Amino acid sequence: MKVHFPIRRGVVLDKTVGYVYAVDGVDLSIRSGETYGLVGESGCGKSTLGRAMLKLTEPTAGRVVFDGIDLSSMKGEPLRTMRRRMQMVFQDPLSSLDPRQSVESLLVEGMRAHGLDKGKESSAKRLRELLLAVGLPSTSLRKYPHEFSGGQRQRIGIARALSVEPDLIVADEPVSALDVSVQAQVINLLEDLQTEFGLTYLVIAHDLAVVRHISDRVGVMYLGGLVEEADSDQLYREPLHPYTKALMSAVPVPDPLVEDRRERILLAGDLPSPANPPTGCRFHTRCPWRQETRCDTERPALREIDPGHRVACHYAEDIRAGRIRQHAVEAELVREDWDVVPDDASLAGPASVTETLGP
Ligand SMILES: Nc1ncnc2c1ncn2[C@@H]1O[C@H](COP(=O)(O)OP(=O)(O)OP(=O)(O)O)[C@@H](O)[C@H]1O
Q1: 23 alpha carbon – ligand 1 mean position (Å)
Q2: Quick one: which of 7, 13, 148, 193 is 20 to 30 A from 210 by CA?
Q3: ipTM rounded to 2 decimals
Q4: What is the spatial distance between Cα 22 and Cα 292, in angstroms, rounded to a whole number?
């Protein structure tokens, strides 16, 4: 799939002077009942991909197939019916919930739009069930979003998504606006609801720790492309793409008393603009293992290195076997004596993942 946004100039924005290559050739499938975690730095195209999967953003090229049905040319009522089955939970519940609507009205709205409010009594029962499912008191119905804490508001956002009985939920940074102490509660809630209602999740996050806990499989995005994908355990045990390795370097050590023997990876330079991505491998401008000239000119395909473990790097096997490791060490881009501990292991913001320590 591709999603390219035109960059327009001129008095009435009538000239297209270029494109933002937000999603540029991603082939991703999510299995029924699983949680797929999508990670990467801010601006790499995660949200755009999530929105395009729900047809909230029209793809420039490619198809979205949901439950065997091709949504590409679907419009009007058939698309609306399919949309009920695919809901989104947003990062900031305060901006995604209309402050003038009570919780009751917020929850009933979607049910009504999809013909699921079948009479006063059954709607009231359904509302009670929804509140119970997300752990909010029944007195919440008459209240307004600003009367709740951040975590409670996210529960309202989740209840709202659940109200139309979806199969797939795309959760875009569902906990990143919340206090750390509340994050785990919301993640646990999502897990419980998945078991209870047989949901499938796409969880988008810049924080590897969040995704690790909740995901069955994880995909790592860089500048509009998927660079690595594997079962969660496998990816965390043996990241193969240099970018994933760098992200892993930034995850804090779980136990400070355990000696940290992982290699630390320094990425050169800043994240390039998706409006002007590098030729060849998108990651080559920052890669410690860059090999001339193949990496600069030839874009690597995502290929299966081990069963279910796909990597978009020409030299993944060589890096794994340590065959081209020396080059990176000599260039002082990979060091074993790194002693800089990150203040913040998150990957938010345009800053590159540099000089970070990991477990
Ligand atoms: N509607 C739009 N029009 C033009 N450019 C857009 C639009 N939506 C997103 N972009 C650009 O596409 C790129 C990818 O954005 P996207 O929001 O998908 O990234 P992201 O990885 O989800 O980042 P974040 O975590 O900051 O939301 C960015 O450069 C962004 O500025």
Answers
A1: 9
A2: 148
A3: 0.97
A4: 26
